[in-house]
Amino acid sequence: MASSPFDLTGKLALITGGGTGLGLGIAEAFIQAGARVIITGRREEVLQQACQQLGPQVSCEVNDVADLDSIPGLVQTVEQKYGPIDILVNNAGINLKKHTLEVNDAEFQAIIQTNLLGLFALTREVAKGMTQRKSGSILMITSMAALYGLPLVSAYAASKSAVLGMVRVLASDLSPHGIRVNAIAPGFIQSPMLLKALETDPERKRKVLGRTPLGGFGQPADIGHAAVFLASDAARFITGVNLPVDGGNSIGF
Asked: Which residues form the Ketoreductase domain (predicted)?
């Protein structure tokens, strides 16, 4: 009996920012689909807790994607210790909620450094091996901020809009080498941070829910299941797309 096209058994996935939030949800979904997973992040304690939670199919490596000089070494370490990387999920990112007129250059640069420059450097290094093997799937996490004008996040929106443009070019550059490149645009996904932010801003909460046709907030597993689909053979003829997983928020009125 043929295995499911959604099956990731035998695949090795590298997930940045995999210790919490969406990254943790993606790691959990990948494990359920049979993959081995390496999670990275800046905080060793958080990564170790995630590994204990997720079980023996997960390992962790401490890394800050904003440290560009560390990235070739990270990729080399992962592939030497665990094997070739089949799936890369660029999930790590930082945000800044601040009025445009109050954002200074250093703050803007910090967002770009992590969300764009680090993401590109890691993608480039992982793609070198994938190109040799003529196989691979790369996933980016974009944002509603790349699709419409969310207030107070100019630097974040700039970084995510750039990632969205990069997805299309990378798909054109890398797909001939057997590497697919896609993105997921999460809507408002439930987390302690989101709920806390919206509880102190009832008008924003009303606006978010009012323009989400399916109502309510998404769960990290919703992003995880979409990531499994895009990383698997079920999506073998899909590249260069940005898939909103948002309950219809991006098209809601």
From this structure: 11-187
